[in-house]
Write a structure and sequence with these properties.
Bound molecules: beta-D-glucopyranose
CATH superfamily of one domain: Glycoside hydrolase family 3 C-terminal domain
Number of strands: 26
Distance between the termini: 69 Å
Largest sheet: 8 strands, parallel
Helix content: 25-40%
Radius of gyration: 27 Å
Strand content: 15-25%
CATH topology of one domain: Rossmann fold
């Protein structure tokens, strides 16, 4: 029998799509547009059973069995169905498969998208070779303004430009080897859920949509993302998954996206909960017409034949949707190579390069938020530090002493490693880790304690949990007993390493919090330890911004460790001893308290900036720590920002900005230059400032580098009107380098 055209790898993709489409029945088409599960949760035991498996389905998600079982299911689809269409295997692989990388929010703190690109490439390789996953349900690229929302951990922070850079990098990394598709999510505005309540109503103006929420998706589309996930929320009275204005006009029209759109899990059949379409046939027609091609988890698109019969859906719409699904399958080479390699995990995962990358990444993510001289007066540390008084300081005595970090392991005899995160693996690994659940040993099994033992080999390390960790219950008698142990351990320590924060399950989907202070068992511990007056270094693990300024005031140093992956503990110790100079900067603003939310840097101006925002916080209008904040062990000096015109072939009006940055300290260090643009007078108000570029540079002591920025006026100075038109208004602009130096210029 002659081979059908669609099975000929040499034929053009479009011809193959048309050929296959022409052979499909309407029912087969409907199946291709559904994404089912087999088995339940994404865990290693989730192999599913034959009876749950429908081999004509377009895709399976949340499957996390081994490759052999996946291939066995695939074989049924390919060899025992009429047309033999292979299935796409989808899973949330967000920050690693078996090698766990920093969570996305931490990745953004590195300001190195190139590392994200490399890490996502490793993640895609591992999950394809080790699990047969060829569709990664990420990156999540939504900007987050509200740390109560648990899913900020999955995204790249509050800045649309930064999120866009990381989104594009993630897409490139996932798709680099050509075997896996990225799924950029959730399009669009889900992160604006009211009060941070997951899945809740979103109130987004057309301006906010264009200025904050859409740009990262445009960047990901430009990077060639093969798929996008539509979001759970509504926009201006219409569920996004039924919005043709967003899914077709915006995403495909303006952004030029060519791939397939999958709905979010169960979103389509739940539209009725928003007071929209209730009838499944009606929901189906609206969702496809809007621009979804696959329904996730609800089998809704099995209503397609009924929708066509009722005249609610045209065959053209159905064929268009099926074409987009088939195109992705052809593009990934699935018809030629439907089976994943069945190599042992040790040959495909956690290879030395991957672990090195995780290590390098963790070093770049951590943010030093505080580093003061120790407050106590009788420790060897204090003695050591007072001998290192900085001569040029004109400040008071307390300020002249050297800061507590970095520590000198040769001088430290007793360390107290206290707090619930000290001897725990989980706080470093984040909560999307379908394949990396066995963390009791192996690559993902490192704790702060393990690393501390290596970095302070001569010191006596006393360990005490200090309090419970896993929930929000108020402190109990058990906590009091644990606290007493910790106080005893810390009483005469040369330095206390206080390891605390959130367990990973406190962040993520359905993990919103009404409060973002520390879980209640931890503050009494911190108070009790701080009262001892020993040099106190806080190591906080978290997947969101937290607010505890009063407690932090009692610490001498605070290192924000996020959930920075399998080598986070080593990286943290390298920073504590000064082997690595911290260089992470916050990709989100940290509020002082929950009542200050939302607080983010690129807000719009208020009519009376001099007026306190709150009468119970009269001194401070800003956040606890602003976007872009992060200390180093060295100091960087910024020269004058200069802006000059620079004609290019593309633009007669192009400009070039430069700034010289000098390492004025005695240690090598890295500095992220954040270029902010302000447009103080516009016909359509603009944010007080916005990032238009960033660059992370390394500088040896005394070294100076000139950092250059090419300004393309249409890209960098123009803005979008609500209807999507981009306008470039002549006038005066202000360009700032990291808020340290600025220049005004006119266009
Ligand atoms: C989440 C998505 C995820 C999907 C599949 C949904 O509930 O919102 O981000 O990709 O589940 O696991």
């Amino acid at each position: 029998m002659k081979r059908p055209l669609y099975k000929n790898p040499a034929a053009p993709v479009e011809a193959r799509v048309r050929d296959l489409l022409a052979r499909m029945t309407l029912e087969e088409k409907a199946e291709q547009l559904c994404q089912d599960t087999i088995g339940k949760d994404p865990n290693p035991d989730n192999h599913g059973t034959d009876s749950e498996f429908n081999p004509r389905v377009g895709s399976i998600y949340q499957y996390c069995g081994d490759t052999r079982t996946r291939n066995a299911f695939q074989r049924i689809a390919v060899e025992r169905t009429r047309l033999g269409i292979p299935i796409l295997w989808a899973l949330d692989v967000i920050h690693g498969w078996r090698t766990m990388f920093p969570v996305s929010l931490a990745q953004a703190a590195s300001f190195l998208p190139s590392l994200t690109e490399r890490a996502q490439r490793v993640a895609a390789r591992e999950c394809w070779q080790d699990g047969g996953i060829d569709w990664l349900l990420g990156p999540m690229v939504e900007v987050g303004h509200d740390p109560r929302w648990g899913r900020n951990v999955e995204g790249y922070g509050e800045d649309p430009y930064t999120a866009g850079r990381f989104a594009a990098a993630a897409v490139r990394g996932i798709q680099r080897d050509g075997r896996c598709a990225a799924c950029v999510k959730h399009f669009v505005g889900y992160s604006a859920c009211e009060g941070g309540r997951d899945y809740s109503y979103t109130e987004i103006s057309a301006r906010a949509m264009r200025e904050w929420y859409l740009p990262p998706f445009a960047a990901a589309a430009k990077a060639g993302a093969l798929t996008v996930m539509s979001s759970f929320n509504e926009y201006d009275g219409v569920p996004v998954s039924a919005s043709r204005a967003l899914l077709t006009d915006e995403l495909r029209g303006r952004m030029g996206f060519r791939g397939l759109v999958v709905s979010d899990s169960g979103a389509l059949h739940r539209m009725g909960n928003m007071g929209y379409a209730h009838d499944p046939v009606d929901q189906t027609a609206r969702a496809i017409h809007a621009g979804n091609e696959m329904s996730m988890g609800d089998g809704l698109f099995r209503n397609i034949p009924a929708a066509v019969a009722a005249g609610k859906l045209s065959m053209e719409d159905v064929d268009e949707a099926v074409s987009r699904v088939l195109r992705v399958k052809f593009r990934l080479g699935l018809f030629e190579n439907p089976y994943a390699p069945e190599k042992p995990t040790r040959k495909t995962c956690q290879l030395p390069d991957a672990i090195d990358l995780a290590h390098q990444f963790a070093r770049e993510t951590m943010v030093l938020l505080k580093n003061d001289p120790p407050r106590g007066n009788n420790s060897s540390l204090v003695a050591r530090h007072s001998s290192l008084v900085t001569r040029h300081s004109s400040l008071g005595a307390a300020h002249r002493a050297a800061p507590v970090l970095p520590l000198d392991p040769r001088k430290i005899r007793k360390i107290a490693l206290v707090g619930p995160a000290g001897d725990e693996v989980h706080p470093h690994l984040g909560n999307w880790r379908a394949a990396a659940t066995d963390v009791s040993r192996g690559v993902n099994g490192e704790t702060f304690l393990d690393a501390a033992r290596r970095f302070f080999p001569k010191a006596e390390i006393r360990v005490a949990r200090g309090c419970t960790f896993w929930d929000y219950t108020p402190p109990t008698e058990k906590d009091a007993a644990l606290r007493a142990e910790a106080v005893a351990a810390a009483r005469d320590a040369d330095v206390v390493l206080l390891c605390f924060g959130e367990v990973p399950w406190m962040c993520g989907e359905k993990k919103s919090r009404r409060d973002i202070s520390l879980p209640p068992a931890q503050p009494p511990l911190i108070e009790a330890i701080a009262a001892l007056g020993r040099p106190l270094v806080g190591l906080c693990c978290s997947g969101r911004a937290l607010a505890f300024p009063d407690l932090a005031a009692k610490m001498d140093a605070l290192l924000w460790c996020w959930q920075s992956g399998c080598r986070a503990p080593t990286a943290a110790m390298e920073i504590l001893v000064g082997k690595v100079n911290p260089s992470g900067k916050l990709p989100i603003s940290f509020p002082r308290s929950v009542g200050q939310i939302p607080v983010f840097y690129n807000h719009h101006g208020k009519i009376t900036p001099e007026c306190p925002d709150y009468q119970d916080l009269p001194e401070e209008n800003g956040p606890w720590f602003p976007f872009g904040f992060g200390l180093s062990y060295t100091t960087f000096k910024y020269g004058k920002v200069k802006v000059a015109s620079k004609r290019t072939a593309r633009s007669a009006r192009a400009l070039e900005a430069t700034v010289e940055v000098t390492n004025a300290g005695s240690r090598a260090g890295k500095e992220t230059v954040l270029w902010y643009l302000s447009d103080p007078e516009a016909s359509y108000t603009q944010p007080v400032r916005r990032v238009i570029a960033f660059e992370k540079i390394s500088l040896k002591p005394g070294e100076a580098k000139t950092v250059r920025l090419r300004i393309d006026p249409m890209r960098d100075l123009a803005y979008d009107l609500p209807d999507g038109r981009r306008v470039l208004e002549p006038g005066e602009f202000v360009l700032s380098a990291s808020l340290r130096s600025e220049a005004r210029f006119a266009l």
